[in-house]
Amino acid sequence: MKPHRRKRLSIILFIASCLAVTVGLTLYALRQNINLFFTPTQVAMGEVAVGQHIRVGGMVKAGSVQSRSDSLEVSFLATDYANDVRIHFEGILPDLFREGQGIVVEGSVGSDGVFQASRVLAKHDENYMSPEVKAALDAAHVETPGYQQSAAGLPDDS
Amino acid sequence: MLRHRDINNLLPDSLMIPELGHISLILTLCLSVMLATLPIVGAARNNLLWMNLARPLAAGIFVFLSMAVLILAYSFAIDDFSVSFVAQHSNSMLPDRYKLTAVWGGHEGSFLFWTFMLSAWMLAVSIYSKSMPLDFIARVLGVLGFICGGYTLFMLATSNPFDRVVPLAPADGADLNSALQDFAFIIHPPTLYMGYVGFSVVFAFAIAALLSGRLDAAWARWTRPWANVAWAILTLGIALGSWWAYYELGWGGWWAWDPVENPPLVTWLLGTALIHSLAVTEKRGVFKNWTVLLAILAFTGSLLGTFITRSGLLTSVHAFASDPTRGVFILGFIAFIVGGSLLLYALRAPLIKSESGFAMVSRESFLLANNVLLVVACASVLLGTLFPMVYQALTDELISIGPPYFNAIFVPLMGILVAVLGIGPLSRWKETSTSYLWGQLVTVAMLAVGLGVILPLLVTFEFSWMATIAISLAFWIVLSMGRDLLNKCRNKPSLIQGLRSLPASYFGMQVAHIGVAVMVTGVALTSQYSMEKSVLLSPGERTDLGEYEFRFDGTVAVSGPNYIGDEATIHVLKNGVEVRELHPQKRIYLASSSPSTEMAIDAGFLRDLFITMGELKEGNAWSMTIYIKPFVRWVWLAAIMMALGGFTAAFDKRYRRFRVRDAQQAARVAADLQAAT
Known about the structure:
The structure holds two protein chains of two kinds.
Chain A: H1 3-33, E1 34-38, H2 40-44, E2 54-60, E3 66-67, E4 73-79, E5 84-90, E6 102-109, E7 115-122, H3 131-139
Parallel strand pairs in A: 1-2, 5-7
Antiparallel strand pairs in A: 2-4, 2-6, 3-4, 4-5, 6-7
Chain B: H1 4-10, H2 17-45, H3 48-52, H4 54-77, H5 84-89, H6 96-101, H7 107-127, H8 134-158, H9 183-212, H10 217-248, H11 262-284, H12 288-311, H13 324-348, H14 363-395, E1 399-401, H15 403-423, H16 434-460, H17 465-489, H18 495-501, H19 504-529, E2 531-537, E3 542-545, E4 548-559, E5 563-574, E6 577-582, E7 585-589, E8 594-598, E9 600-602, E10 607-616, E11 622-630, H20 633-650, H21 653-676
Antiparallel strand pairs in B: 2-11, 3-4, 4-5, 5-6, 5-7, 7-8, 9-10, 10-11
Helix pairs in contact in B: 2-4, 2-8, 4-7, 7-8, 7-9, 8-9, 8-13, 9-10, 9-12, 10-11, 10-20, 11-12, 11-14, 12-13, 14-15, 15-17, 16-17, 17-18, 17-19, 19-20
């Protein structure tokens, strides 16, 4: 083999081995870290295995938020207006967490059917609904009541 | 039907000023269309007049876009809520500095500002290019004009910031998102946009090179300062965003692998690969095709960022309101630009020849490794970002990819990159003997590993793999850079004289690389040793975290121009002695009645303490989260060092000296051309 060919071959082999290692790592890491998204209806119907790490999106049901006065535990219902799921969370809720507001929670369903959330996400823009919440409501065929006309009651011109 | 008189009543203050802004945009579009065609055709036909149109047209575009931005800012300043964009993103109570900067507080305005930034770069190119041949600069500005035209058309067609709310203008605006009412909002978006858009200049240089077939060392020299400056500004922009997220979003993180954080990172990684590849192209005349491809890809990265942010496809704190037509337009624009430039690349790249070869162990090889690692890292970030979108399109199921994925891939790749970084600068162009490198680096490596094992043990009395590896890698870079500096000065009579003889670009390289060492240290130590705790505290109560004790002394009511809130007093004690008093706030913004947490931070070189308030519970007790973040400032310090390195290298006088010589040559060529016609 000519020297420049050998050089080129070894460069190509180096790049290929780099790529192979990365592809392997990537696929492994991807498989470990995909969080599937479920709607409250799917959770209520028992489509989720106990302990599986998932995301659930929905609206915080009005009047459902119960928080303990002596600890950081809080519990509320996430709803797609067809079914509800009880969410349990220990920690500080985001600023924009409010009743009637869309949220996404990350965590898993316990054996008692209560969703133990490790994270609660609320949007930073109150005019904006996360695609996940919207998908959940669409799946349950619910109109989103008065969602766009928030804040100062501006006409929705978008 | 409204009669003329009624319309005048409805638009009392501003008269037709927003319409002037609209007209400015239309004129910008006209000028952009001219700029995208005439100079490029002129360059192909050797028509001096048409080529000479490029600079005045670029200046004209800059003037009209400046006018548009100023008019939008003016509409904000006078509270003209008949302009829909102003009504949605401002409020009469909003402080003036946020009224003016609310120009980039929403989709339409920020896109106008983005386009304005592009025109500023165009103006800069047309001024600081006196030495480049006219046909080259005509093509560069033509390509930029095309991009600018696309943006302006997009604005006029789907997102005009000057749209009015007629007939019933609201009495007051909806207010700027409270999370945006912050000092960082004034500086982060402009810096990020400036850096992002800077890569269009590099892209235009690459396309001009492909069009003219001129891809030589001179081309690389023209491109390098622009690429360095764009890269340095982008570095600062990303760091500012990270710093802002850290103190504003309140979860103590500085990077979340958020789908909108990732595209700037993708562009940054490609840009980093590009500035290194450009060095090889300039010095050795190899990697030419690769450099051009990287320039195209980096620009694609910046367009992709726009697409992801503005199409509403992904869930993110940054996502603007979604509108399918916008997404389709941007996607079409990306497809056209990328498809067109890759087609041109495919046609022209085979004609470009490398000017020399290099051996297996050489600086070229190490820079190649740098490029491969950066591009692979970039691809993995992109995969994680786009995978949920593709998955949804294929299976109709929604998924998200968590930070562990990104950490699992990105961190090892960067570890290898840093290991290579320690060797590359010491190696020589063309060929280096392994024994020479071994001789240079074996003591450096032993010292680095020794310090990496000992230092964390001395401070924490615990062994940690992450801290050991990170500190070893950081010392590996610092010591090998120091070794290189000593080598460079060895043959000079004194160290001072040695340092004086080195070019600015060398110091730029040193500073940026030591910045990498600082980054590695900051990232690893803050990830490894951070502590946090959520507690419920009544007034007078204490809690411990790490070596600190926190005492909550109740809250007082506070109010600002457009908010009211509670402010807590927390005394921080260390070994029973008070070291700090911290005042986190919980605010309610009046116009939107949205709550906002203002955390209190005690920033330090070695550690940050910070506290956020949750909510009021029974008996004046508040839920709070307390964080201790060691070395977190080093992350941003590192970014500043890298940016500083980029600027220093860009302003190396080597580029200017070269330009003067080349200017004389270009003048001769132009004179010859004129004589011929």
